[in-house]
Amino acid sequence: MGLAVGQLGAVNLQDSKASVVKRLVAMMHDAKKRGADFIVFPELAFTTFFPRYWMDNEDEIHQYFESAMPNDVTQPLFDAAAALGVGFYIGYAELTEDNIGYNTAILVNKSGKIVGKYRKIHLPGHADRKESVPFQHLEKKYFSVGDLGFGVFELMDAKFGMCICNDRRWPETYRVMALQSAEIVVLGYNTPSVNIHWNEPVHLRTTTHLISLQANAYQNGLWVAAAAKCGSEDGHHMIGSSAIVAPTGEIVARTLTEEDEVICVQADLSLGELFRQHVFNFSKHRRPEHYKLIVERTGAGNPIN
Amino acid sequence: MGLAVGQLGAVNLQDSKASVVKRLVAMMHDAKKRGADFIVFPELAFTTFFPRYWMDNEDEIHQYFESAMPNDVTQPLFDAAAALGVGFYIGYAELTEDNIGYNTAILVNKSGKIVGKYRKIHLPGHADRKESVPFQHLEKKYFSVGDLGFGVFELMDAKFGMCICNDRRWPETYRVMALQSAEIVVLGYNTPSVNIHWNEPVHLRTTTHLISLQANAYQNGLWVAAAAKCGSEDGHHMIGSSAIVAPTGEIVARTLTEEDEVICVQADLSLGELFRQHVFNFSKHRRPEHYKLIVERTGAGNPIN
Predict the structure, then answer these.
(1) Where is the signal peptide (chains A, B) (predicted)?
(2) The domain spanning residue A86 has which CATH number?
(3) Fewer CB near the terminus (10 Å): N or C of chain B?
(4) B250 falls within a domain
(5) Is residue A141 annotated as a catalytic residue, yes or no?
């Protein structure tokens, strides 16, 4: 499978959604020329990463959300997918009929049809307004916890799982999808280079991003493709390092810029089988009777022995 | 905490257990001089990695096992711990009164007293005799699956978890211990550099070893210290790269040889708190209602959506 990642550089407050769609379509063309059958775009791709801003006014908030997908503004992306025969993953802020907000991603096939939806489960940040921080991280205010689980969807003879941003740091994310025979996990992210909670060395944001992708790809025998929105959005810097990771745990492609950039590999999905049949042959080696705390506890508690 | 790893070079078939104990005691002295309060020794430390050999005769098999710990041969190690005031972790083949074999590790305090025991849960390899392979990997023949769970033990004002070798590649291992507030996970391993099941590039054995330690240390906000038995045991080569990993996911010490070698760091256990209180604040962010497949399924199955 020709597997591409379309990393987006900064989307500033003043940038229109239509202008972003244009950039996405241009990257889809680029990816197609380089042999891609599928391209992964970022989380909340159509707008700036708005959870960094405190907003009270519902109309102001809702301008960042989509109540239909596709819609007039995003339709050209779906048209391009159908014209080029390229499937894609993209993230956006979804507003339901019941006025519930989700941090959502969709899987679109090469006819431009939506075949899978995921709503982010591991929402980072906080819901309250913090005063002593350089910016907010209000995902817990603007979004509800995803209610669709970690689904796995058949597309182009491959089993796709989806997750979003912070989900990629939680091993449960990948494991639940691997237990449904996922062969590839696709995700988008917006990761500020500054941690507002403690003085985390900036390099760690990239280090921990990459080792999370690598170890979880390996430990589940699947491909992982991750697309950043990055660079400086109105002065707020986010990391790049979009990457495609093989089931060996190795990074086989990585972006070098913090701007719009396409990376593309020929991904041999059968490579994962070597891991799933031997070292990670789940049915031979897993011992769920010893994993119970994973579902019985939410937070950490006392030793049980 | 002064945290050391005592890596063992090869232990050949002809090497006596007493000679190995001497090497372990020498490394404990070295570690003490370098400020260690605790030292991690390898899996099945007292003998060669005997699961590579097919044996039918019970007496022949049992010479690799210990039916008491400590015993006459291993007592000098416990005496040295008490004399130096250094705690340790070590792995050995345990034979119970009921004649059951386990791949076992113990936690010993600085008075030389055993304060915790773990029996390996993720046993790799096979129980049958394979003909077309360069050597056997008979852990499933010689050992039963551990029956003690992934316990967490208080020692030197720190909460220790233990695992063994292949366990380190399974994210469930660390998560179950982190949910019991583990601050440090210690482990030993014997990892052949050749994969008998497929033509795995040799470098991957080390790559996947390290990314597993790194990502799981980070994703659980804990220290990981891992000790190899390595080098060429009667012609059978095993990887080194014993390592100490911080809760940042960074390797802070790593062996350079494939011989007896001590590495030692001053490990700030409170570093993990920064992760456990923010990005990995389990009680705020985990969603066990979406993790159920982890305990409901052993092997991989069909998508549930």
Answers:
(1) none
(2) 3.60.110.10
(3) C
(4) yes
(5) no
